[in-house]
């Protein structure tokens, strides 16, 4: 039986009518593709074979396998195929290609899809494989959050703090309810309809008064906020198959907790889990609970509480090197939490690499990371800093941008750098930065605003010129920019300029490797080229690597090329070779410390 390397942090999707049949995404000759998994036979079948790979997969009640056929820019459409194989067909016909904004298929079978267009989102419904009729079209970013089991209602979710954070519609397009997220009741997210029960009940999460609360909406009751079910850090949730209880996964300070909320009895019980991170957790029919668990020194493992055979995951040879510890650095809005991985060979201080997460609405977890593994095995300490703006530490921490976009985060990175150096854990003269997407943006901003503090940087698919990226980026990212900055570049130009790395390109003094993608729609190629041009004009030492892919590449070869190039670059810049003693120097030797 083959062992699979799963690409995304998610469990297999399970057919509700036949839980023995599942769909998952895994490595296929160096790229991500969709597979089926039959638990009875313990066998898999590869479904997709696309040059650019395939990430999004699903399975419906009739065991039809669905996937999103997209190009390098993320533009495409849904297709489906029988679980056992055969020809593939379009999910719905007569609809435009766009970005994936949700899929829901119920018995009948009726399919509903969300498709993102240039400046709008369209929701289409129709018989599987048949013509798709438009239910609604809204301006800006939105997503299909679910279709009720009876097919009588669907939910559309938009920005959590908007006047129409969640809209409930009938298939004919009539508005059944508009749930605001901008009033005194707090921000709001929709997570999907209950799979069973006497009424169409929509699961919600509300942020209010520095807490996250479970909420529900139903036609008969309207919105009910369950104040007894509150958490101090971010949560997500899934219905149990009976539609009467909810599994809640909480991100808390770099690790995960699980809870089961019983809505009828208004009780909350912990679900035991080992220390570390649950990348995914899902209740299944028959009382089964599937989890995808990991920590820094253990690659992800899938488990079933009832012993259901799940796809065997790939592993690594031997033990993952290094030790991990939590470091908390005092800061103006509270302590900054860092997950610090240290080599085991020899005493510190060590040359170090700060791996900077993207987002900014994300966080680094106590979870296995192949990049951490490679760097620690190469003798580097690795610092993963959950700077202000990160999730997992509560609403106040996520909103703390007192020094401005990017500058607040760079200040936290600098504070942690000083703290780790003062503790004798890292060498301040041999420390680099490495980040992807918004993390790559922070690398560029840090090297430009604090030259000499870090001695090298790797920026992968970064934002380099915020105003230019806003002008040519996706509608969803433009909306995010406008929330971060409080307006568009035309409305608040000074804020965008203050936070744009290109403004500080002439001050960069440390060697820099920039990786960019020619088809990137999130961090467009042109604004990276402009930044590289500014580095050239300033005479800054830099290298570049261009990938023929989009922002979210699914080709393992590209990931390996970036990993090799970056590790070799950092090794060369942070640990130069020992220099021989000059002739005639007698017993005097000058060496570079490793």
Give the strand content: 35-45%
Assembly state here? single chain
Largest sheet: 8 strands, mixed
SS class: alpha+beta
Q: What do these coordinates show?
A:
The protein is an alpha+beta fold. It is built from 9 helices and 35 strands. An 8-stranded mixed β-sheet has the order 28-29-31-30-32-33-34-35, with helices on both faces. A 4-stranded antiparallel β-sheet has the order 1-2-3-4, with no helix packed on it. It has a 4-stranded antiparallel β-sheet with strand order 5-6-7-8, with no helix packed on it. β32, α4 (438-449) and β33 form a beta-alpha-beta unit. The protein is globular and about 65 Å long. The two termini are 44 Å apart. Residues 578-594 have low confidence and may be disordered.
Describe the secondary-structure layout.
Blueprint: E1 13-14, E2 21-28, E3 31-38, E4 43-46, E5 57-59, E6 64-70, E7 76-82, E8 89-90, E9 99-106, E10 110-116, E11 120-127, E12 133-139, E13 143-147, E14 154-157, E15 166-169, E16 175-179, E17 187-193, E18 202-208, E19 211-218, E20 222-231, E21 235-239, E22 245-252, E23 255-262, E24 267-271, E25 277-283, E26 289-295, E27 298-304, E28 323-329, E29 336-342, E30 350-356, H1 370-377, E31 381-386, H2 395-399, H3 407-422, E32 426-436, H4 438-449, E33 456-460, H5 466-472, H6 475-485, H7 493-498, E34 512-517, H8 525-538, E35 542-547, H9 556-574
Parallel strand pairs: 30-31, 30-32, 32-33, 33-34, 34-35
Antiparallel strand pairs: 1-2, 2-3, 3-4, 5-6, 6-7, 7-8, 9-10, 10-11, 11-12, 13-14, 14-15, 15-16, 17-18, 18-19, 19-20, 21-22, 22-23, 23-24, 25-26, 26-27, 28-29, 29-31
């Amino acid at each position: 039986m083959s062992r699979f390397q799963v690409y995304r942090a998610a469990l297999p999707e399970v057919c509700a009518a036949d839980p023995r049949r599942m769909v998952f995404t895994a490595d296929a000759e160096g790229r991500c593709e969709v597979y089926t998994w039959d638990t009875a036979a313990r066998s898999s079948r590869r479904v997709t074979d696309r040059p650019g790979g395939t990430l999004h997969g699903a399975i419906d009640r009739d065991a039809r396998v669905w996937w999103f056929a997209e190009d390098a820019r993320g533009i495409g459409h849904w297709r489906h195929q029988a679980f056992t194989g055969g020809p593939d067909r379009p999910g719905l016909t007569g609809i435009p290609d766009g970005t994936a904004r949700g899929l829901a298929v119920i018995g009948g079978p009726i399919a509903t899809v969300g498709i993102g267009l240039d400046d709008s989102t369209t929701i289409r419904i129709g018989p599987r494989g048949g013509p798709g009729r438009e239910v609604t079209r809204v301006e800006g970013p939105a997503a299909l959050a679910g279709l009720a089991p009876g097919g009588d209602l669907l939910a559309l979710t938009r920005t959590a703090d908007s006047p129409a954070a969640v809209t409930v519609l009938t298939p004919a397009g009539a508005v059944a309810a508009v749930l605001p997220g901008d009033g005194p009741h707090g921000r709001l997210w929709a997570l999907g309809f209950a799979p069973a029960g006497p009424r169409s009940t929509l699961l919600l999460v509300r942020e209010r008064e520095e807490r996250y609360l479970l909420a529900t909406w139903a036609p008969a009751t309207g919105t009910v906020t369950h104040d007894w079910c509150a958490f101090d850090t971010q949560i997500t949730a899934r219905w149990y198959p009976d539609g009467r209880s909810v599994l809640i996964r909480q991100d808390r300070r770099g690790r995960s907790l699980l809870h089961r909320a019983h809505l009828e009895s208004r009780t909350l019980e912990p679900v035991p889990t080992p220390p570390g991170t649950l990348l995914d957790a899902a209740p299944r029919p028959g009382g089964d609970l599937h989890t995808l668990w990991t920590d820094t020194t253990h690659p992800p493992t899938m488990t079933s509480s009832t012993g259901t055979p799940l796809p065997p995951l790939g592993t690594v040879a031997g033990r993952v090197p290094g030790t991990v510890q939590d470091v908390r650095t005092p800061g103006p809005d509270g302590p900054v939490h860092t997950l610090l991985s240290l080599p085991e060979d020899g005493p510190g201080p060590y040359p170090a690499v700060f791996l900077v997460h993207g987002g900014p609405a994300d966080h680094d977890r106590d979870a296995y990371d192949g990049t951490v593994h490679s760097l620690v095995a190469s003798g580097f300490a690795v610092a993963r800093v959950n700077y202000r703006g990160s999730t997992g530490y509560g609403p106040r921490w996520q909103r703390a941008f007192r020094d401005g976009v990017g500058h607040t985060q760079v200040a936290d990175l600098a504070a942690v750098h000083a703290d780790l150096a003062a503790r004798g854990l890292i060498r301040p003269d041999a420390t680099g930065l490495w980040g992807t997407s918004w993390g790559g943006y922070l690398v560029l901003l840090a090297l430009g605003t604090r030259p000499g503090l870090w001695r090298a940087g790797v920026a992968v698919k970064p934002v380099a010129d915020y105003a230019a990226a806003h002008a040519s980026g996706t509608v969803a990212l433009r909306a995010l920019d406008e929330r971060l900055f409080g307006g568009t570049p035309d409305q608040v130009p000074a804020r965008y300029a203050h936070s744009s790395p290109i403004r500080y390109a002439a001050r960069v003094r440390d060697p820099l490797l920039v990786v960019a993608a020619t088809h990137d729609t999130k961090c467009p190629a042109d604004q990276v080229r402009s930044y590289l041009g500014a580095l050239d004009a300033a005479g800054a030492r830099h290298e570049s690597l261009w990938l023929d892919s989009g922002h979210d590449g699914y080709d393992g070869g590209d990931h390996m090329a970036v990993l090799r190039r970056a590790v070799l670059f950092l090794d060369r810049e942070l640990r130069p070779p020992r220099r021989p003693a000059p002739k005639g120097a007698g017993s005097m030797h000058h060496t570079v410390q490793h």
